[in-house]
Amino acid sequence: MNKTTVPKIEDIDKKWFVVDAENQRLGRLATEIANVLRGKNKPNFTPHLDTGDFVIVVNAEKIVVTGNKSSQKLYRRHSGRPGGMKTETFEKLQNRIPERIIEVAVKGMLPKNSLGRSLFTKLKVYTGPNHPHQAQQPEVLNIQTIPAGGK
Questions:
Q1: Is 58 domain-assigned?
Q2: Which of 22, 51, 62, 123 has its CA at a distance of 20 to 30 angstroms from the CA of residue 99?
Q3: pLDDT of 110-143, one tens digit each?
Q4: Residue 92 lies inside a defined structural domain of this protein
Q5: What is the C-alpha to C-alpha distance for residues 91 and 73, in angstroms, rounded to an integer?
Q6: Phi/psi zone of residue 80: left (φ > 0), alpha (ψ -120 to 50 degrees), beta?
Q7: Residue 145: inside a domain, yes or no?
Q8: How would you classify the pairing of strands 123-125 and 85-89?
Q9: 26: CATH
Q10: Is 128 helix (H, G, I), strand (E, B) or coil?
Q11: Looking at the domain assignment, is residue 85 inside a domain?
Q12: How far from 22 is each of 4, 25, 127, CA to CA, in Å?
């Protein structure tokens, strides 16, 4: 009889990865990050368990979108009060809080439940090339996507 193996929590090894977002396309980068956070790149992936790794994203302010998205893509937030909807374009949000763009893109690709919320805490996004996680000895994660300059 065949049995499905479920990895024990102590058998799951958590690694730390650093991703450089400079000249990367937003959606393609967010997809790869979400897969690593979930653990889909590992052979012991289990949908209902946290088998993923930690991801550190640096140079968040240098992320690129194609077409007219920089002036047409809207980010919305609501205060919870009547008439409290605020909208902001990609350009304005990139000037104000560039980390939020990557966070929103990755969060939308994670499960919408308690597992997704706990996975999201393993994403660390920073502007500039420096981050405070040198003690974890992160490995560089090379994302093989189409560069923003084309071909």
A1: yes
A2: 51
A3: 999 999 999 999 999 999 999 999 999 999 998 8
A4: no
A5: 9
A6: left
A7: no
A8: unpaired
A9: 3.90.1180.10
A10: coil
A11: no
A12: 41, 9, 10
Structure tokens at 77: 């937030």
53-90 confidence digits (pLDDT tens): 999 999 999 999 999 999 999 999 999 999 999 999 99
- 71: Cα separation from own chain's centroid: 22
Query: What span, in angstroms and rounded, lies between the C-alpha atoms of 56 and 33?
Result: 9
The CA distances from residue 10 to 7, 51, 132, 149, in Å, are: 8, 11, 26, 43
Question: 64 forms bridges with which residues in the sheet?
Answer: 25
Q: Whole-model pTM?
A: 0.91
Helix H or strand E segment including 108: none
Domain that holds residue 39: 14-63+99-140
- The amino acid at residue 138 is P
